[in-house]
Amino acid sequence: MKLSHLNQIATYLKKFKKISAIYRVTDTVIKIVFDKNDEIFFEMQRSNSSIYKTTSFTRSKVYNAPFDILLTKRFNRSNIVDIDIINQDKVLRFKTSIASAYKQDISYLQFEFTGKYTNVIILDK
Known about the structure:
The protein has helices at 3-13, 66-75; strands spanning 18-24, 29-34, 38-43, 50-52, 78-85, 91-99, 104-112, 119-124. By secondary structure, it is of the alpha+beta class. Strands 4-3-2-1-5-6-7-8 form an 8-stranded antiparallel sheet. The chain is globular, with a radius of gyration of 14 Å. The chain starts with a helix and ends with a strand. The mean pLDDT is 91.
């Protein structure tokens, strides 16, 4: 993926205020539902990463790995605080917050599209 395309995608994503749902649909694809109706898929296959929208994509199975549990816990129904490209590199970072009864949790979801390798990382403050 080109950096100029990623910058355009980040600008487009900044219009959204909330992540309604997020989960893995295949081994390498993560689906994010923004504001209850806009679905965007992040393909994180090595050397072939992309971001796209489609209507005919079904979930292959339910994933219960620790990553998936934490992904759901930290990002389902979260508010988007900021979306940035980190250091003008091919790294897209979502800063989100979940307000619970006692405190506000800040979490980061980082998608790395750096050349030959791709990665999705969950970070806290």
